[in-house]
Amino acid sequence: MLYRAMNSAASGMDAYIFNLDVISNNLANAGTTAFKRSRTDFEDLFYQYYKPPGTQDNQGNIMPEGIFAGSGVRVGATQPDFTQGSLIDTGRQLDVAIAGNGFFQVTEGSQVYYTRNGQFSVNATGSLVLSTANRGLIVDPPITVPNDVLEIGISTDGIVSATQAGATQQQQLGQLNIARFLNPEGLLHVGDTLYQLTDASGQPQLGTPGTLGLGTLRQSFLEASNTEPVRELVDLIKTQRNVEFNSQVVQASDQLLQMVAQLRRF
Questions:
Q1: What integer is the mean pLDDT of 79-84?
Q2: For every residue of the chain, which 3-state class applies, written as one string?
Q3: Which residue of 64, 92, 194, 233 lies most exposed, with the fewest beta carbons within 10 A?
Q4: Domain range summary for the chain, segments of one domain joined by +
């Protein structure tokens, strides 16, 4: 019994320490553009039954309850939260936020990525790219910006247009499409605010912003992280207390075992 209590409490400590890692990552990215917080889901472990519910007693009566003990807890999943973050006005014409459902599609060679980060730039060849700390990913479908552009406009439905030097009218440069997934929680996080599709996420459904349940675009805005520091700090305190409670169970079990080991026959 005491060993089972120690093992159950140890599993609780291990699970909540993992939860601490998730919370710390949420807080570390509270200022990251388009970051989506995650939560830890727990599930109980195998139960040992001494008398299952429905067992008959000596008089043939069916017992309404059983006798059993659980064996602890484990981390069931880490679930990302894709709720909308606040939209921040940056005043920069190549910053674009998605208001609603959807992801931008970008490529690096043959690899396709998806992101909510619309902090775009123009590279040396004029291509519209998503710049990260280590690389520039081409927006898909590609959009090329001429050298003599004076102003770039991006409509709510993704039409990219530009005013060139000496021109009286804007020229359409291309179309920003966005993608949606049946199960965005199944996307693979690869860092740099990027995601990859998996069998769990399903295939992307590409479309024009504002159609097919997709969100609309907001030029000169960026989506902020949806991490709420106060909420994370409350979860942090709860996690710390749960670790302490489980450690106290381990200490109490150890003390009881010590008492049993010191019993003497008089």
A1: 95
A2: CHHHHHHHHHHHHHHHHHHHHHHHHHHHCCCCCCCCCEEEEEEECCEEEEECCCCECCCCCECCCCEEEECCEEEEEEEECCCCCCEEECCCCCEEEEECCCEEEEEECCEEEEECCCEEEECCCCEEEEECCCCEEEECCCCECCCCEEEEEECCCCEEEEEECCCCCCEEEEECCEEECCCHHHCEEEECCEEECCCCCCCCEEECCCCCCCCEEEECEEECCCCCHHHHHHHHHHHHHHHHHHHHHHHHHHHHHHHHHCCCCC
A3: 64
A4: 2-80+246-261, 87-223
